[in-house]
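S., here's the first fold you wanted:
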Amino acid sequence: MKTSLHFEAPTDLSVGTVRITGHGQTIADWVATPDNRTFQRDDLRPGVYSVEIGPAGVAPQSVVFEVREGQANNVVLPSFSALSSTGSNTSFFDMDGQRAVSESPFSIKVDAHLNLGLTQPDRRVSHDGEKISGERARQIDIPTARRRVSIGLSEEALGPETFATFDGQSKMELSSGRLELEIPTDSRRDHWAGHRVRLSAAIEKVRVERCLLPLYRGGTRITVAAPSFSAADLELSITPVDTKLRAFVRALDAGTSIEAAAVRDDVIGRRDAKILLVYDADPWAALLFGLLTIRFPDVFGPADPVWTDHLVERAGWAFDAHVIRASQALSAAAASSLEARNNAVSETVGFLAKAQVAGSPYYRYTNQLFGEMAAGVASYLKVNNPRIDKAVVRRFERLHSRWHRELPLQRGSGSTFTWLARDLAALRERNVLVPHRHPSGRLQPRHTRIVFEGEISAGQIAIIGRSTTSEQTSSSGGAVLSHVVERSEDAPEFGWAQMPALRRPPGPQDDPNKGRFGGEARRGGFRLSATFEPTKSKSWVAVILTIEADRSMKIALGDFAWFVLHPTFSPSALKVSFRGSRARLRIQSKGGFTVGVWVPRYGIELETDLAQIDGAPRIIKLL
């Protein structure tokens, strides 16, 4: 029988490079898209191979696998998010179990590591356990600062800049110092109506950062990461769940002309751009396509002026639509007569002014275009001011002055344009716009739905709950968590709605998980434990919840557990990915309660009462 390989890249790969190497040479190297993820080859030399997967703008992940002689080898990788959940950039594929794992299921010699371009781990340690590398030990100082953080969602209510509590649904997962908040498609919303949703993130003594949130068809994913080697801070990433639409975002934000061409050929294909403006299309796809034609004119060609006018007509509520139209007007007149250029500048000023009236940009690249065009118009007016209508000049001076005044508040996070909350005292006393640098880290829930409250440090995110004796405890005992929904791609048996505990009556009103998850902390090869650490506040204690699997369980990448907390936590239920044989969640609590856990792949339910654990602090036992 031939030694063959069938390879499939992760299903959530939008656009990025895939490179397969082995025996010191590259056997495959291409730009993958959702419809171009597979590789097939016969008569392959047996041995150890590796594949590096590098989505545009994202740190690559490598997977090592073995090609066995005389077999039809089949390597189907899990999602890229599962690969990155390990906290390492290298994973392994178990051919027997047909799944990716964190530890090598086969023997790899040192020279195999070198041939594959992988780094052989340095396992030398000093007498006190500190790792040493090279000729001498080097100590790495990891920042110990901890800061309060809140994340909230609000939506436009009666008019522009008037926001109320977000009324949609969301789901949150935790993986390796990273939170993923997902907002699914809401069939009740008219995506072309321009109803705006705003995300706010408050970080104690750092900033309050906001952005307008695109509600993509297929869902929107918000990733919140705590960097491992920096002071307590957050990194935000906002992308579509749909991989094809995400390819648009990746190409715009971090792609080269090669990735842009792959999006053009494999994602857009031969479809007419007009289809992006029909009623059931996604307005964000149309806006992204318009921006791609500006960033990659050699790949996409200029957008049709009729199409651009239609975009402004349908999505005039978006700052980005007017900037796209302004860019087209300015480009069209570049090689025209002086009179045509003057008219184009006047038209451009009008579109830029309309953009400012519409509010803030959705995309960082749009904001960059605005700045570049404003600078170009300002230079043009210095030379041609007498030939331009005075009203147009005054209009431009106003919008340009506003642009410069707001520069200290402008920020960007990935592809998304974000801005900082202003310091009201500085505005009142000195009439200047500067960021508010000393916030409490708490958002006001009056007009914002708080979807996460916690504490961050280097590489760690903890959830903070209110007192479990609070009157805010749900009267339903936590039987239904309205903020938890399912991803469409989740297998039914792994989804929240299938959790067996939900079909059982809740426990006592002040401890609804009590007895609801089987009453045992150890079962079926899994053990749930909790340890406690002091915090900077005497009123709170840190609780580290850990699920550990026996070696016999062979946990795969992408396996996860549901942690169900007291209803006073936000969120009160989280999917937590396993990292090796453990899934770990850090929370802060005032008072004891029962934690429930469900490991769906293995059908295991566990629970533990924090107040009954030996060594639990008084604040847990007595409140």
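And the second, which I think is the more interesting of the pair:
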Amino acid sequence: MKAPYAHTNRLASESSPYLLQHAHNPVDWFPWGEEALQKAITEDKPILVSIGYSACHWCHVMEHECFEQQEVADVMNASFINIKIDREERPDIDQIYMDAITAMGLRGGWPLNVFLTPDAKPFYGGTYFPKEHWLNLLGQVSNAYINHREDLIKSAEGFTEALNQSDVRKFGLVDESESFGHADLDHAYDHLSKQFDLNMGGMDKAPKFPMPSIYLWLLRDYAATGRQGALQQVIRTLDKMAMGGIYDTVGGGFARYSVDGEWFAPHFEKMLYDNGQLLSLYSEAYTITKKPLYKEVILETYSWLKREMISPEGGFYSALDADSEGIEGKFYCWQYDELKNIIGEDITLFSSYYSTNETGNWEHGMNILYRKYADAEFAAMNNLSEDSLRNYTQQWKNRLFAARDPREHPGLDDKILASWNGIMLKGLCDAYRILGDERILNTAFLNAEFILTKLYDGKTLYHSYKNKKASIQGFLEDYTFVIEGYLALYEVSLDEQWLRHSIKFVNLVIDQFYDENEGLFFYTSSESEKLIARKKEIFDNVIPASNSSLARNLYHLGKLLGNDDWIEYGKKTASRFKKAFLADPSYLSNWGCLITSMVSPTAEIVISGKDSIQVRKEIDSIYHPNKIICGSVEASTLPLLVDRKPVPDKTLIYLCFDKTCQLPTSSVTELLNQLKRLN
């Protein structure tokens, strides 16, 4: 039967892998833009905005059940202007309509499907819908738009008004200059500790997300207070994650989350932002514990990134899909007979180590590799030395990798995002900081150059790069995570160009993103496309909030440059979040990292002389997160170095707190003694 309209799906020329996945749907999809928005006004039709991302399993399911079906497409095309959005390309739009769903009292998530008036104001929505429910909803919405337009528009106006409410007033972020003490850290820790899973690590709920910023804060709490409970919860969590199915023990890298409470069955997609943050987290934890497991995770994850996730130009791709051959997790799971053929005579020991069995430990007779026991415990149980067990496991991994690699790999989302690359750059720098592996530093340099040459045109940092083209003006997250990455690269390399680029980006952000009225930063630039609301991102989630990241950057840079205004901004802004942090630190953990750094003075460590890099490495072998490092082999104009010119054949270390300095020393041991005496 001939369709009653001409089918014109407009996604084929887009660069987003997610949009291209929908380019052959019978739905007349538009990308977000003036053409679609004007068409809705001209034809007086409601807009359906459908938002997802390429590694989203349920996005694929809804596409197959609904958007690939001609019956569904006929209804959508006749009654709606249909817009498909990649949330990773347009987080600004996703943020607005996700907030709208919340304002409606509905549960958010992806796929996100929101119905709008022709002027883009939301009036209803939801997430995943099976086919019959979706068809029913389409009919109801179309009927309401035709027959109850006034009520619907009134509702849309109300939700739009809610979207534009001040976050400062909404969350009581009063302008106070409060100090912070150990009692505040005790209070916040006590609150969060009630949510700990003391058996499996993480928070006591399912599904389990890594949430790296929570554990980075707990490490800083341990450093500031000596609180063993904080450290033990981090160790428990990192151990269980590394042993769990959420970690790809064969190829390296972590999946996005575990669907259960034991880190066993992952949602198999791998996201760049998770793995960048987890590199930082495992690196910091390794500095304290020196656990071989953490070093193994760092090196295996780095190998995966180099093998599968970096472009020839040096940018990191966004994600790997959960599915291959249309089946979730197929690439990562194993049938027992397959394992038996690969492992051979060691299969009994292997199965005990990885909890596999003949009937499968997961769905459809498949096995997920999952460890119940740490190596030391397992070795003792099986009368093996740890070295002997390590030889076994390395052989097994090599064989499994060789057997798995020829399989059809999960789909790759090969767009390159500035924000996520900034997160990964920071992770690489942290990994290099504790391992000293020059390969990791070289990868960091390559990535930093990529961001500078491919995503920045001298005036604007761009959000996305694909097909050798940068697009979409950068959001606050792009600037602040790149600033953080460049700061980290400066501190490990002492190459001042990265510090200068950080300063340049900070000044641009202050000029284009700062809200003078509320003292926080908008998510979008003053030069970006005008949407129905201009939002601020203030709560930490799977990725730290761009405002918390920027406040930490300003505080850090202020200390490095002697910029009292930036230091004061960090302090003042942290104090505004104090009450919210004490009430529920789980969604303010990156703010918690900033708050914790203010409980005791931040150490300003200046290194001057020919061995500055080596001295930096020695200093970083000891965990002391509340510090900044500034150094140079040669004379420098940086404020902390200008009066500390290198002297021949000597490297001196200066320790200062709040512009009060100790006598210089050439001994890292003496520096550490000074730190202990003054903390």
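Why I say that: The longest helix spans residues 386-404. The chain has a mean pLDDT of 94.

Talk tomorrow,
H.
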